[in-house]
Amino acid sequence: MLEERLKSWICEHQPLMADLQRVRELDLPQCYIAAGYIRNYVWDILHGYDRADRHSDIDVVFFDPDDASRERDELLERKLRESTQNPKWSVKNQARMHIKNGDAPYRSTHDALSMWPETATAIGARLNPAGGIELVCPYGLEDLFALRVRRSPAFLKREYYLERVQRKQWAGQWPLLTIIED
Questions:
Q1: CATH number of the domain located at residue range(s) 2-179 in this protein
Q2: Spatial contact of 92 and 58, defined as CB atoms under 8 Å apart
Q3: What span, in angstroms and rounded, lies between the C-alpha atoms of 23 and 5?
Q4: Regions of the chain with pLDDT less than 50
Q5: Is 15 in a helix, a strand, or coil?
Q6: Are 141 and 130 in contact (CB under 8 A)?
Q7: pTM as predicted
Q8: Which of 37, 69, 77, 148 is most buried when burial is the number of CB atoms within 10 A of its CB?
Q9: Which Pfam family, giving just one, matches this sequence (predicted)?
């Protein structure tokens, strides 16, 4: 039920649909637009706000252990930025992000997202070849739609999570959120 609602809302957001099309054209394995672009859009709708595109970047995540070079990610970012004139693109191959995060190697994009700080952030969307929307959401969508910010079970850095929630100032932007400090 929640997946269908999210897919419907994504289909109604033409800029997001255009970005999903651009990302699909990159033809990267296990590739999704994830994090704040999706999360903030849903929170805006649930707060009754006009779509403000409150995201500091457009996170593109994929998983390709055969070429996990930072240079490839930077080249893809430049390509997206130049083609859209939008500087917000951020492309990260999750096959190497475990090093930065101090985790064991990730096995897939799904596995990598399960290690993200918040359950409501660990969500991605992509267009399949037929144009349908596919989601990756290792913790489901309940927290996202319940306006609940909670630390992901696999994310063990509690102090970092708390600092991140404070720094992002989500409670000030979306006052209906419930922030769980655990």
A1: 3.30.460.10
A2: no
A3: 22
A4: none
A5: helix
A6: no
A7: 0.95
A8: 37
A9: NTP_transf_6
Of the candidates 66, 39, 12, 50, the one whose C-alpha atom is nearest the C-alpha of residue 146 is 39
pLDDT digits over 143-182, tens only?
999 999 999 999 999 999 999 999 999 999 999 999 999 8
How many C-beta neighbours within 10 Å does residue 135 have?
18
pLDDT at position 75 = 97
Cα distances (angstroms) measured from residue 159 to each of 97, 126, 162: 20, 32, 5
CA distances from 113 to 4, 8, 24, 37, 98 (A): 20, 22, 19, 15, 11
- Site of tokens 């649930």: 46
Q: What element of type H or E holds 74?
A: helix 70-84
Residue 88 and residue 57 in contact, taking contact as beta carbons nearer than 8 Å: yes
CB atoms inside a 10 Å sphere around CB 161: 20
Q: How far apart are alpha carbons 153 and 178 in whole angstroms?
A: 17
User: How far apart are the C-alpha atoms of 47 and 105, rounded to whole Å?
Assistant: 37
Please identify which residue in the block is written with the tokens 């708390």: 162
